[in-house]
Design goal:
Length: 372
């Protein structure tokens, strides 16, 4: 198969983790016999520096042409006080909207080898396996009117949280479809005791749930959910929520996984004529300027995002499983970066990438053997 992939390394550690993700993708190509066509483009702070625009037209075109896009991270401290449309984050919001990737899947699971990496008690974390389904192209991130106006004590900022029935329906359907392939339980998270937006959200989820009588559904207020995620995380299977709540809850979920560096994500949009999802793949972590350029960032989130890409954009389930198995293998060997607090010496970003590539080797023999 020919895989046309666009890489958007972006800012800070995004550059380092996508380098390792690329190595792993190339190794998958070698081991499983796929041809890769990898291109790179600018997004975020680096794009502002080089073109004045966080989401340049070139990037837009290349992303539209690619079968799938892998993003590293965006954000640089020098833009902290820049106007909203000259911020790196605007580039990421722009590409999500341009590709129409409304469905952000953020799996959160615990690995046996990482139980001690979480500050939470082992018995609480052991066995956690959930997926946060975050609506990604609506809500307060995109709503208008928005902006800052006036001056003095009358200076005023406005954001608008807005959802249509259609937007809620399609993300809810995604959550229920996923639940069917898992433990058949959806927890829809909202703030319906206060927000009209959430009242509509809850009504629509109740309606969609009727089409999935085999899936159990419950509704939870977001403040309670924030607490339950650390009190009783194993109760969650599929967590369905709107854009900003999903952003916040997924960082909390990272504590269960041991480090935010562990979390991959898949942002999916309309199906292509080939039947594959339009996909933007992005680790959940940010650009971490404090450790950028030091070869110590955790690349597992980016590498896991490659696995998600193989599965959702290319339908290469076996390859995706091989990457995930290689990751697990490396975790068990203890070759992990400093954020995971290894017992021995911490591995560097590139050592982890190399170790995953090496662990991918055995699949070659199995595949060869299976064919002959
Ligand atoms: C995320 C990030 C982004 C978001 C930022 C960088 C715009 O925090 O993907 O979780 O808020 O969606
Ligand atoms: Mn976030």
């Amino acid at each position: 198969m020919q895989l046309n992939v666009l890489l958007l390394p972006g800012d800070g550690i995004g550059v380092e983790v996508t380098r390792e993700a690329r190595k792993v993708l190339e190794q998958v190509g070698r081991v499983f016999g796929h041809t890769l066509k990898i291109s790179e483009a600018l997004l975020g702070g680096i794009a502002i520096h080089k073109t004045g625009d966080p989401f340049p037209e070139d990037t837009r075109e290349l992303a539209a042409e690619a079968d799938a896009t892998l993003m590293g991270a965006v954000g640089l401290p020098e833009f902290d006080n820049a106007p909203p449309d000259k911020r790196p984050e605007r580039g990421l919001l722009g590409i999500r909207k341009a590709l129409g990737v409304y469905s952000n899947l953020r799996p959160v699971r615990s690995y046996k080898a990482l139980l001690d990496s979480s500050p939470l008690k082992n018995e609480l974390v052991d066995g956690v396996d959930m997926i946060i389904v975050r609506e990604l192209t609506g809500g307060v991130y995109y709503g208008t009117p928005r902006g800052i106006s006036g001056a003095g004590l009358e200076e005023r900022a406005v954001n608008t949280m807005t959802y249509t029935r259609g937007e809620i329906e399609r993300i809810a359907q995604m959550a229920f479809e996923l639940a069917r392939k898992r433990r058949k339980k959806v927890t829809s998270v909202d703030k319906s005791n206060v927000l009209e937006n959430s009242q509509l959200w809850r009504r629509v989820v109740v309606d969609v749930a009727k089409q999935y009588p085999d899936v159990a559904v419950d509704h939870m207020l977001v403040d309670n959910c924030a607490m339950q995620l650390v009190l009783n995380p194993k109760r969650f299977d599929v967590v369905l929520t709107e854009n900003m709540f999903g952003d916040i809850l997924s960082d909390e979920g990272a504590v269960l996984a041991g480090s935010i560096g562990m979390l991959p994500s898949a942002s999916l949009g309309p199906k292509r004529p080939s039947g594959a999802w339009t996909g933007l793949y992005e680790p959940v972590h940010g650009s971490a300027p404090d450790i950028a350029g030091q070869n110590k960032a955790n690349p597992f989130g980016a590498i896991g995002s490659v696995a998600a890409m193989l599965e959702y954009s290319f339908g290469l389930t076996r390859e995706a499983q091989a990457v995930n198995a290689a990751v697990e293998n490396v975790l068990n060997s203890g070759r992990v970066t400093a954020d995971l607090k290894p017992a021995g010496k911490a591995a560097t970003t590139s050592e982890v990438g190399d170790a995953v590539c090496e662990a991918l080797q055995p699949a070659r023999k199995e595949v060869g053997a299976a064919k002959s």
